[in-house]
Write a structure and sequence with these properties.
It comes from Hymenobacter cellulosivorans. InterPro entries: DNA_mismatch_repair_CS, DNA_mismatch_repair_MutL, DNA_mismatch_S5_2-like, HATPase_C_sf, MutL/Mlh/PMS, MutL/Mlh/Pms-like, MutL_C, MutL_C_dimsub. GO terms for molecular function: endonuclease activity. Keywords: DNA damage, DNA repair, Endonuclease, Hydrolase, Nuclease. This is DNA mismatch repair protein MutL. By secondary structure, the protein is an alpha+beta fold. It is 34% helix and 20% strand. It has 19 helices and 22 strands. It has an eight-stranded mixed β-sheet with strand order 5-4-3-6-2-1-7-8. It has a five-stranded mixed β-sheet with strand order 9-10-13-11-12, with helices on both faces. A four-stranded antiparallel β-sheet has the order 16-17-18-22. Strand 16 and strand 17 form a beta hairpin. The termini are far apart.
Length: 651
């Protein structure tokens, strides 16, 4: 039998290996910018055209290369960063594997110009698909200029998988942001299609943060620093009030290298515990410095994931540093020992199954009478208070209301019976019965069947009553038993179908704002906004570009409550960016789901009136798929009578 294993041709092996390092134009940007930083440059310029598909060019004033080094830099596994195995454990440079330029040259047309400071002329190299087309001396400034043209020109399948220009530009902005933030001592500039996007002079880290992320952070930065023999943590965190729905402005750098770590992010969130509004994320730019021997950065080709030798210690120090900064800047809550604080009494543990959970001196009849006296209204002027007529209690004080509410919460009952509104003995008697369910004033004879227990007074129509529980769920009686509806999930399903229809008709109704409002985004969020602007217009949003990374909002969807347009759009962009599921969705479907989810969660824990509960139930069952949200979560649970009976059967 003939031999079948053969060595791959060098050009094919290079193209396969390039797939690990060069995934999109942003990968090229990352590698070239990091090489410029390693070359000790003080000025770096990034030029992109057609979101990097046509051109990615990085120009720096670094050390430059000799003609031999320029040629060797394009060979695989050729590097100036390491020499021995021991060097892997003391890496301080951003690059070290010698794969980046070789991988880029394998899938693009590359033009390399470089010159050392002590040389009179530089070197020009032209490469196509790993093949050196020409090398010659050339007059050029000190430093290196690398132009990467027509990325994936020789791998059309890879080029076809690239996203739209808006998506690819967003990834390029991310990589530019990471390198520029970690090196504030270097001047950076970015040009897109001959338009200047960023011009960042060298300066302090705080200045770089404001220049990159916007003036909104100017008054929101709090310095964070903790130095220990094992690790040092330095940087800035945001004040709690600057927290946003988007989690994009969170950056960790280890030995000046950008990393992603859910573990360390949890450490920061633990330090902010109790200070942030629900579903918001704090801002931070934190630099960790530790011995290179204590980390392993050679885990992933992109080098954004690392392993710590002692991750628990790193977690504890990061959390302590952030917590200390919050305390120093008076952003953490403090105890006021001089104030008049009323602490709730500690309730004793239940001693035995037969013990009274409310205490030995608990008397339901006395409690109901006390509650009625505290809550009943005052008699009207001129009414009789003596003789055989029943005297009506005084109107409740605020303290009495609070005590009554606290009692019901101690029983685990979150819905407190409404206080009587009419000054009549019948109303008081009705309230006494509601507040004293353990006492039956008129027992039913044994031979008679017990009547159906009435539900609370909230009604959704004749013969059908809806009850809201914990401002989160709706209980709806049905013929076969009981239905429990998650009001947030139900609202998400309703909104999704509504917006999906509007998007299909491309005629979403809009409410015009009295005055246009300007909203400024980060460059990354603005790139996403431009990407989905057509779909947003179909949903009812009306806005126009109004300067760099800024829009003027003129209208919002008609059924969206008047709110902060910035918060609404930022939350929508964040959900659009982070949406993940078992299937790939097109952009418009993804946007509709994100908008429905965003608006539905904004109404979480909302108290609904009778009319609102009725409308919610009716609109849910008018949906084509009322039982599930678009991503498959249940909106309702049906419990039949026999299931309810099983719950109360004797075990």
């Amino acid at each position: 039998m003939a031999d079948v294993i053969q060595l791959l041709p060098e050009y094919l092996a290079n193209q396969i290996a390039a797939g690990e390092v060069v995934q999109r134009p942003a990968s090229v940007v990352k590698e070239l910018l990091e090489n410029a930083v390693d070359a000790k440059a003080t000025q770096v310029q990034l030029i992109v055209k057609e979101a990097g598909k046509q051109l990615v060019q990085v120009v720096d004033n670094g050390a430059g290369m000799s003609p031999t080094d320029a040629r060797m830099s394009l060979e695989r596994h050729a590097t100036s960063k390491i020499r021995t195995t021991e060097d892997l454990f003391k890496i301080r440079t951003l690059g070290f594997r010698g794969e980046a330029l070789a991988s880029i040259a394998a899938v693009a047309q590359v033009e390399l110009r470089t010159k050392q400071r002590d040389q009179d002329t530089g070197t020009l190299l032209l490469i196509e698909g790993s093949q050196v087309m020409s090398q010659q001396p050339v007059a050029c400034p000190d430093g290196t200029s690398i132009s990467v043209k027509n990325l994936f020109y020789n791998v059309p399948a890879r080029r076809n998988f690239l996203k739209t220009n808006a998506v690819e530009m967003r990834h390029i902005l991310d990589e530019f942001q990471h390198v520029a933030l970690s090196n504030p001592q270097i001047s950076f500039s970015l040009y897109q299609n001959d338009l200047e996007v960023f011009n960042l002079p060298a300066g302090r880290l705080s200045q770089r943060i404001v220049a990159l992320l916007g003036n909104g952070y100017k008054e929101q930065l709090a310095h964070c620093e903790e130095v220990t023999p094992f690790i040092s943590v330095k940087g800035y965190i945001g004040k709690p009030e600057s927290a946003k729905k988007s989690r994009g402005d969170q950056f960790f750098f280890v030995n000046n290298r950008f990393i992603r770590s859910a573990y360390l992010n949890h450490a920061v969130l633990a330090a902010y515990e109790g200070l942030l509004p629900k579903d918001t994320h704090p801002f931070y730019v934190l630099f960790l410095e530790l011995d290179p021997k204590a980390i392993d950065i050679n885990v992933h080709p992109t080098k954004t994931e690392i392993k710590f030798e002692d991750e628990k210690t790193v977690y504890a120090i990061v959390r302590a540093a952030v917590k200390q900064s919050l305390g120093i800047h008076n952003m953490a809550p403090s105890l006021d020992f001089e104030g008049d604080v009323n602490f709730a009494p500690i309730q004793p543990l239940r001693a035995s199954p037969n013990a009274n959970p409310f205490g030995d001196d608990y008397r339901p009849d006395a409690l109901a009478s006390a509650a009625a006296r505290a809550a009943a209204p005052a008699p009207k002027e001129g009414s009789k208070s003596g003789g055989s007529e029943r005297a009506l209690p005084q109107r409740p004080t605020e303290q009495a209301k609070r005590e009554l509410e606290a009692f019901y919460k101690s029983l685990g009952q979150t819905i407190v019976p409404d206080l009587p509104e009419a000054d009549t003995p019948a109303a008081v008697e009705k309230f006494e019965k509601a507040t004293n369910p353990l006492v039956i004033s008129n027992p039913i004879p044994a031979k008679e069947a017990a009547p159906e227990l009435p539900l609370p007074e909230q009604t959704a129509g004749p013969g059908n009553r809806v009850v809201q529980i914990n401002q989160q769920y709706l209980v709806v009686p049905v013929k076969s038993g009981m239905m429990l509806i998650d009001q947030v999930a139900a609202r998400e399903r309703i909104l999704y179908e509504q917006y999906a229809q509007a998007l299909e008709r491309q005629s979403g109704s809009s409410q015009t704002l009295l005055f246009p409002r300007t909203v400024t985004f980060t460059p990354q969020d603005f790139a996403i906004l431009r990407e989905v602007s057509a779909a947003l217009h179909d949903l009812g949003f009306r806005f126009n570009e109004f300067g760099p990374n800024t829009i003027a909002v003129e209208g919002i969807p008609a059924d969206v409550a008047n709110r902060d347009e910035r918060e609404l759009l930022e939350g929508l962009i964040e959900q659009f960016r982070n949406h993940s599921g078992p299937v790939r969705l097109d952009r418009r479907e993804q946007l509709v789901r994100a908008l429905a989810r965003r608006l539905a969660t904004s109404s979480d824990n909302a108290r609904l009136s009778d009319v609102e509960m009725t409308a919610l139930v009716d609109r849910l069952f008018a949906c084509s798929v009322p039982s599930y949200t678009p991503d498959g979560r249940r909106t309702l649970v049906l419990m039949e009578v026999n299931q309810l009976q099983d719950l109360f059967r004797k075990p």
